[in-house]
Amino acid sequence: MTDFLPEPPFRHDQPSRIGVLLVNLGTPDAPTAPALRAYLKEFLSDRRVVELPRVLWWPILNGIILNTRPAKSAAKYASIWLPGGSPLKVHTEQLTARLAAELGTRLGLPLVVDYAMRYGRPSVAAALTAMREKGCDRILVLPLYPQYAGSTVGTALDAVHRVLLKTRTLPDVRSVRHYHDRPGYIGALRQSVEAYWAEHGRPDILVMSFHGVPRRTLELGDPYHCECLKTGRLLAEALGLAPEQYRITFQSRFGKAEWLRPYTADTLVELGRTGTGRVDAICPGFAADCLETLEEIAMEGKASFLNAGGREFHYIPALNCRPTWVAALADLAEEQLTGWLPDPEQHAGDAERLRERARRAIAAGSPE
Ligand SMILES: C=CC1=C(C)c2cc3[nH]c(cc4nc(cc5[nH]c(cc1n2)c(C)c5CCC(=O)O)C(CCC(=O)O)=C4C)c(C)c3C=C
Ligand SMILES: [Fe+2]
Ligand SMILES: [Fe+2]
């Protein structure tokens, strides 16, 4: 066997480190048709994303979708592009830096915290290779999807495992599969909604919109639908909402097959038509704002609701790098790192003290 990845020779004098790798979906390099074509080709060739037999899917993808969708999607990306690039990339980068600072302070260890994208750049392989080169022999993989779906977390972990298959000296690896019901995540969502309502007032109905998946995956056993419903219910409970004050919906349908229902777009039209004055929308499954939240919900969703007769529509931003969210992710990571730390008891104490400090800062209303 000669197909292992090259790796630096083992060195006794190199400090051994812990790596924390955040993994997000990925995004095009530019809001242009050629960049979209490359991104969509990689994304939509993933068998975890499109589960059709290749003989059926290949001609549709290469003959139709990759000739029509890139230009249309590029125009949508252009409408949300930031000076630093795609919002998904900008927010993921910022979140990584904040998490690195938080974990560094809490643990007082030379950690390597980085991010990778499942599609596009930086690839999972490049990020893992860079971590190994920095001496990481223990790596925690933390996908930025609170709810598990085979088409997101499943494929992100496939990418990690594909690299490991070619690695001679394996690191210790742990991964977090989901955190859809974790108090830290739900608490960060609650705090973000309450902060928004304190500033802008309250809606008649809160729409919680999650990315959809084909309905067939639910029938085949994917837990995604149930995890979204649980997140929605826990958030509603945390906010003290009665059942008639919120809806849980699914957006971003792709293709002709049935996806999870109710569809967000249909719900917004129905709410507008039936005289709901104000709707606020939040997308709890998206850790970072991106095309699907900023264009599909905040722009298209708003237009559908207002055109159907609604009076006022607000999009509540994703968690991005809110301090409560950074603290929740750091808690998740820290929990997984137990046993890898030099002196867990001593560090557990440090972490509690630092968490208390973070809680006090949040209570005192420190800015994002
Ligand atoms: C074809 C099937 C798709 C499945 C299944 C799917 C699941 C899925 N996606 C996300 C999160 C995101 N998707 C985003 C964009 C996006 N998604 C699809 C298709 C499927 N997604 C496409 C073709 C695109 C590209 C844009 C377009 O042309 O419409 C994004 C935004 C990326 C960005 O750059 O901003 C996110 C995030 C989840 C969570 C999910 C299953 C649970
Ligand atoms: Fe998607
Ligand atoms: Fe979309």
Automatic annotation (TrEMBL):
State which Enzyme Commission number(s) the record gives. Answer: 4.98.1.1
The protein, known as: Ferrochelatase
Q: Which Gene3D superfamilies match?
A: 3.40.50.1400
Region ranges (Disordered): 341-368
For this UniProt record, the keywords arranged alphabetically read as follows:
Cytoplasm, Heme biosynthesis, Iron, Lyase, Metal-binding, Porphyrin biosynthesis
Q: What InterPro entries would the database entry show?
A: Ferrochelatase, Ferrochelatase_AS, Ferrochelatase_C, Ferrochelatase_N
Tell me the GO molecular function terms: ferrochelatase activity; metal ion binding
Query: What are the recorded Gene Ontology BP terms?
Result: heme biosynthetic process
Q: From the record, give the transmembrane residue ranges.
A: none
Residues binding Fe(2+) = H211, E292
What family does this chain come from, according to its entry? Belongs to the ferrochelatase family.
**Which stretches does UniProt call biased (Basic and acidic residues)?**
344-355
Role, per record = Catalyzes the ferrous insertion into protoporphyrin IX.
